[in-house]
Amino acid sequence: MIAVLFGLARWRWLLPLTWALAIWWALITDPNLIQGRFLNAAVQGAQVVMFLAPATAVAGVLAGATMRANTRRVLTGVPPQMLLMAGVCAVHTLICVSALTLCAVMIGLIEHAAGADGWQLIALAGLTVAGSSAVGQALGRALPEVVAAPVALLGSYVVLAFPRSFGDPLWLRHLAFVDSCCNSPDQVSPRVLAAIATLASATVAAALLTTLRGRRRAPGLLAAAVALGLAWNLSTSLVDDLDWSPATPRAGQTRCEPSGHGEVCVWPENTAALPDLAAAWATLQATAQKHGLDLPTTVSERAQGQVVYGDGHISLTPQISADVIPELLATGALPAIDPCVIGGTMDSRIDNAWLTLARWWLTTSGYSPSRNLLEPPYEYLDVPPDQLDARLQTLIDAIRTCDASNLP
Amino acid sequence: MTGWLRARRAGWCTVVAVALALTAGLAAGRLPSLNLLYRTSEGAPFRLVLPALVSTAILTALISPTPRADFTSSRNAGRDLAIAGVLAIASMVSAETIPLVLNDADAPGTFTRNLLGFLGIGLIVRVVIPASLAPLLPLAWMIPTLTLAPPEGTLIAWPLLIDASDPRGIVAAATLLAVGLTTEYTRTRRAPQRAH
After folding, report:
1. Which residue range forms the structural domain that includes residue A316?
2. What residues pair up with A264 in beta bridges, in sequence order?
C-alpha cells in the first residue's frame, strides 16, 4: 500500500524537485533578514512553499487522474478513494515538509541562527502544501488532465502570491503564509497561525469530501461547502484587525548575566555578546556610581510593548561589533529625549545636554564616542571636580523633565 | 483531418488561445504579484504575462492521444508545427492589432515576443518530459520570473522586459524558439520506441 501511495504521489520527481528548490532558495535568501534568529530563518525558509505548492498541485493532478483511470478499469478491489487521496496527501506533505525543514535548517546554519521557535511555520507550510495536493487530486479526478494541470499550477500560485500584493483588504495577506516577520522584540501572532491552519485544514477536508460518490455525493459536496465557508469566516475574523506584519510581542525569557550591581539581559540569539556587554556595563556603572548618577542598573532587550527608551532598553543584532557596545549601553541607559519632542520640535539645549552627558560618560569610562554622538557646542562639564556631580545631575534632571531653563 | 484535430482538442485550444490573446490586447494595467526577493507587489503588465497562458493552450493542442502511432504515420510530419504556427499567428494577430485599432498600444510587440519564446520553451521540454506536461513549462517559467526577478526584467527574466525592441528579449525569445523548433523537428524523426 505504501509503495502504491508513493507511486501515485510521483515521489520520484517530486522529491528531487522540492529538495532542489529548497536548497536553491536557502542559497539565495537575503541574509540580512535572519538577524541570527531561527524564527526568521523559518519565515524565509517557509516562503519556498510558493514554488512547492504549485509543483505539488501538479503531482496531485497526476495522482487524481491515475486514480480516476484505475477506478474505471478495475471496478472491484480498489481501496476507498478518500483513503487513497488522504494517503497521497500525506506523502506529498511528508516530501514537502522534509524540503521545507531542509531549507529552514540550511538558512539557519548559514546565518548562525539560534533559538527553537519557528517550527510551527514549517508545519503550517506543510499544511498549505497538503491543501494544494488535495485540490490538485480533486481537479485531476474531475477534469481532463490537460485542463486540470495548468489550472492547479496557476491556481495554487495565484492563491499564495496575489493576496499578498493587495493593500486593501490588508488582512487577506495573512491567510496564506507569513512573509514579513519578525523584528527582535516580536514573534508571529498565534492568530495568524490559527487562521492559516484552519483554512488549509478545511481545504484538505473539502477536497477529500468531493471524492464521495452515489448517495453520499450531494451531502459530501454540501459538507465541503459548509466547511470552507465556516473556515473562511473564522480565519478572516482572526486576522481582520492585524497590521501589515503579523507580529505580536515576543514571549519567552531573555538570557541575563550579572554585571556590577545590576545585570545585562539579551534575547537568546544575542547570547554570544553577553560577556562583552557585561564587562562594558560594569565599567559604565562604576563611573555612574562614582559620580552618584541616578541611572538604571539593569539594561535589557525587551518585547514589543515593554520598550521604554531611556529605561535601560537596548536592541542588538548578532552582527554587533565589540567597539559599539559601550555606546549602545550608555545611550540605552540615559534618559530618553523623545518625550521632549513637542509638535515635531525640541529645544536644542536638551539635545546638547544629552550629547554632553553621553560623551562624558563614555570618555570618563575609557571608551571613545562614535561620530554619531556629535560634540556639543560648549564645555558644560569642564568644571572643577567638586562642581561636576551637581552639573551632571542638572543635565539628567533637565532631560527627564524636558525643562531647559537651567541649561546653557 | 477533422478527427485528427478533434483528438488534439484543437477547437477548444483555439478558442482559449484567441480569447486570452484578445484579453491581452484589451487589458490595460498590471497583474499584481508578490516579488519575494525585491519586496515589491507591482507585478507585470497583463500583456507580458498572458502569453504564458496562450502558449499553454497552443502546446496543449499538440498533445497526441496516440503518440506511438503518430511516429509511425507518414502523414503527420509537420502537422504539429503547422497547428502550432496557425494558432500562434491567430493569437498574435488578435493581441497586437486591437491596441493598434484602439490606438492605445501598451508595450506593442511584447505579446508576440513572449509568445514565441514561451512556445520555444514548451517545444524544447517536450523531448525530456511527458508531452502532456510540456504545456505547463511556460507557466512554470513565469512563476519564478514574477516572484524573484527584477521587475524591469533581465536576460534570464526576458518576459518582463517592457520594451519589445530590447535586444536581450529578442535574443532570448528567438534563441528559445529556434532551439524549440529544431528540437521538435529532430524529435519527430526519432525511432518510434523513443516516443513518450
Report:
1. 255-401
2. A257, A299
